[in-house]
């Protein structure tokens, strides 16, 4: 390359850096709330805690780790990252020259009066081509692919956090069903004793058959509840097995529902932190960034393309000869009925769609956190109220038997107090489970689960493809 050609190439390279078409991405401005409506405890957000520090049940830890290792949805999300990385590699390849090779040969023969004659020739070819990225078309495509890769990684994080929350919530529901099943079985035992007592009194003529029938009804209701909770418990085990990436199987149990730890304080941090923490918000922003870059790709198609090419080769026949061919080509649109501008308009419209989706995702993130915060507070207060109700119902049931034995009241009062006791016990168990689940939901809504930007990936399953 001559000195003049080298200087020209350097000047051209410098000029290319400032010719990128399309708008540069900036994060959309939104009226972000300065604080949550629901009062929160001061301090660092609980989302800063890794999940293994939030959940205190060792069995739950093992279940979550199994799910992170085997869950098929998580593996699919991981494969999506690999796909996006491959597309990024394709986009980057357009930034560099392409080099191809070729070879050919020919052998011919003929029969003449003087005898047979043959001739042969061969050739080899090495060709190179490079489309100069004058208007940043390939750079914008590379930018879009990179942002799409980042969006895939955030989507993977979102699936991971959702999986952790789903395993925790399903496990807590399972422990609640265990508890309610135990309550139902104890109620069946109590009502069998009551029925035996009423049966003896009926045979002795001290109570009517109506009282006997009412005791039988009460027992049958409790027995039916046992079957309801047995069914629900088995189905919940099956649902949890699916999250674990396993066929339906029995699930190991750890701490009872009442023994599950509840953090005394649940700070949520600032609303603005959701924009840089929640995977769905970050994924939506990367997708918007990628789509903004595609406007530049479409814009670049409105301008001429400059191609360089070179062919080097040699032919082998009677005489060996080499050849070289250098060329340049400029190709640009002259008239296409506005097709290229319509292409730009379409990309702008798609960008507007993703802008609105991003803003909707942010608003939904605020909503989910607010809902989780109010759920944590109200379920905590509801648990306290349910426990007071259960204690009062137990006392009322005890007093009702004393009153009934002394002939002060009818058996209907016993039926009513026992029904209230049973319902209050079941409600107290469910409220406790919902309180724990509200903490899980707050943790998920805040984008918790991981410390730092790195992604903890599970082990990959062997691929069936080469």
Keyword list:
elongated; Outer membrane efflux proteins (OEP); disordered C terminus; alpha+beta; 466 residues
Name the CATH superfamily assignment.
Outer membrane efflux proteins (OEP)
Name of the CATH first level: Mainly Alpha
Arrangement of strands in the largest sheet:
1-2-3-4
* Helix/strand order: HHHHEEHHHEEHH
- Supply the number of structural domains: 1
Helix vs. strand class: alpha+beta
Largest sheet: 4 strands, antiparallel
End-to-end gap: 44 Å
Binned strand content: 5-15%
Low-confidence stretches: 451-466
**Helical content class:** 55-70%
Q: What name does CATH use for the topology?
A: Outer membrane efflux proteins (OEP)
Number of helices: 9
Tell me what the CATH architecture is.
Up-down Bundle
Structure overview:
The chain has 466 residues and is an alpha+beta fold. The protein has a single domain (20-98, 135-307, 341-445), classed as Outer membrane efflux proteins (OEP) (Up-down Bundle), CATH 1.20.1600.10. It is 60% helix and 12% strand. It is built from nine helices and four strands, in the order H-H-H-H-E-E-H-H-H-E-E-H-H. It has helices at 3-16, 51-54, 58-70, 72-93, 137-203, 209-243, 279-300, 339-405, 411-445, and strands at 98-112, 115-132, 305-316, 320-331. A four-stranded antiparallel β-sheet has the order 1-2-3-4, with no helix packed on it. Strand 1 (98-112) and strand 2 form a beta hairpin. Helix 8 (339-405) packs antiparallel against helix 9 (411-445). The radius of gyration is 37 Å and the shape is elongated. The two termini are 44 Å apart.
